[in-house]
Amino acid sequence: MNEDILKSQWKQLRGPIKQWWSVLTDADLDKINGQRDLLIGKLQEKYGFTKEQAMHEVNDRLAQFRQPAPMSR
Question: How many domains does the chain have?
Fold first, then answer.
């Protein structure tokens, strides 16, 4: 997910982000404000991830968010 999409969907992503990474506070999310690099940095700071681990976490979670829900029959 590129930076523009993250910014444009930031309001919708705040809830899932708080569930995925519960250590992040509302103040952290306010500072991040849809900026991927700041989200990665906060994950490094709060969870002790390497930059690569944090990038992988963000990419995986955002890919899940983008996948359409399975259709029920």
Answer: 1
List the CATH number of the domain containing 50: 1.10.1470.10
Hey, what are 53's tokens?
């681990």
In the numeric block, the tokens 């029959």 are attached to 73
Residue at 71 is within a domain: no
Residue 50 covered by a domain? yes
> Model's pTM, two decimal places?
0.83
Ranges of residues in the chain with a pLDDT under 50 are 1
33-49, pLDDT tens digit by residue? Answer: 999 999 999 999 999 99
Phi/psi class of residue 48: alpha, beta or left (left: φ > 0; alpha: ψ in -120 to 50)?
left
Residue 56 lies in a domain: yes
> How many Cα atoms sit within 13 Å of 57 on the Cβ side?
19
